[in-house]
Structures are given as structure tokens and as C-alpha cells.
Amino acid sequence: MGTARAVWLFDVNELNPRGKTFLPDLLEWLKDAYKFESSPSSVTDLDKESKTWSFVRGSFQVRDEIFVDVSLKIYTDGLVADTWSSTHDSEAFLADVLKSASEEFNLAYKPETVRRKNYLSDVNVYSTMDLLTVNPKLAQFAEKISRLVNHEFEFAGLDFWPRQFYPLNEISSFSLVRKLKTDRDEHKYFSRAPFHTDDHLHLLEEIEQAFTP
Predict the structure, then answer these.
(1) Residue 107: which of 44, 30, 5 has the closest Cα?
(2) SS3 breakdown of the chain: % helix, strand, coil, rounded to 5?
(3) Tens of pLDDT, residue by residue, the chain (213 residues)
(4) pTM above 0.70, yes or no
(5) What is the three-class DSSP state of 32?
């Protein structure tokens, strides 16, 4: 399993309509509540790359005696959570953060506060499927590329993109490609999808059935 990300988009300021000063306490509470190894030292300590409050390598209990590693980023327009187990675990973590923080600091959170949810599921899979069954002519095209560079090329992946309407959305593409630095005889693939992990795996099973001789 690779990254399993849940993105909840909403105006973070709506959580605090009265403008209470609580951010320093919230950052410290998050660090302690989820045992993050790395967290902001103050409200001005933003992650240099994402310009967010970034919490890394925490712990969240998803089921009895089962804990998962979590990371959290707080933006002005929402929260992003990563686990390495499933997008459902990431989403459960975000729900717990908002519910628990609201109770601790008397925030104005309700489920309908979240206006949109996005997901990103990365998985590594093993399969003996043959992607060339999409179209045998792709092998001929790969041969032409191979001759031009004097090195063997092959068709090695599928990529489905969301339509690029304006304004552009933040939905990831769906892709299934040969895993980087592996040979075709190893049958290793990497796949990314913009939906829940379990839906992702079901779809990969469907693709495997379609492309297996």
C-alpha cells in the first residue's frame, strides 16, 4: 500500500466564528492527542513547501488494538490526512480530529461544514495481466520507438484523466503503469486513483480480468 489520502475542503475560519484565540493550544493539543513526532512549534511555524501547519508520523486507533500512522496538513481551505492503510482510515482520522477538537475548544463544526471531499489512493500490485490486449497495434508502435532510439520500448500503462473544465479541479487521474525500475517479467505495477482504496482495488481486479489471457 502506498499513500492513502483524504482531503476535506471547507473554510477553516467557519470553525471559529467568534474569533477566539485558541490556535497555539490547538497545535499543542493535536501533537499530544495523536502523538505526532513532528509538529509546528508555534502558529508561525509553517511547512516551507506547502505553507501549512504540518503534523508528521502520528498514531490513530482505527479499530480495537489496531493503530495506523497518520500525517496531517492544515490549510486555510481544509484538511489533508495521509495514512498508509486505506483512504477510509484517513477519513476516519479527519472525522475524529474535527469532532474531538470541536469538543475540546467549543468549535462550530458540523458534518455539513465540509463542502467537498477528494481522495488519492496509491497501491503497488502484482499481476500477470497483459496490457497489450488493449490493442495489439501498440506493440508495433513500440517497435518503431525502439528502432528510433536503439533500445527496446514497450506499452506499459494506462492513464485516465478527468476532463479539464474551467475552473480546473483537483481530482487526480486514474493510472496503472509498470512499477518504476522493474522489468515486465516481474509483473509489478503501480496504480493511482482519485477514490477510496477499496473501490480502487475492486477496479484493478476488474482490469486484471479484462487483460489476462
Answers:
(1) 30
(2) 35, 30, 40
(3) 789 999 999 999 899 888 888 899 999 999 999 999 999 999 999 988 889 999 999 999 999 889 999 999 999 999 999 999 999 999 999 999 999 999 999 999 998 999 999 999 999 999 999 888 888 899 999 999 999 999 999 999 999 998 887 665 678 899 999 999 998 899 999 999 999 999 999 999 999 998 887
(4) yes
(5) helix
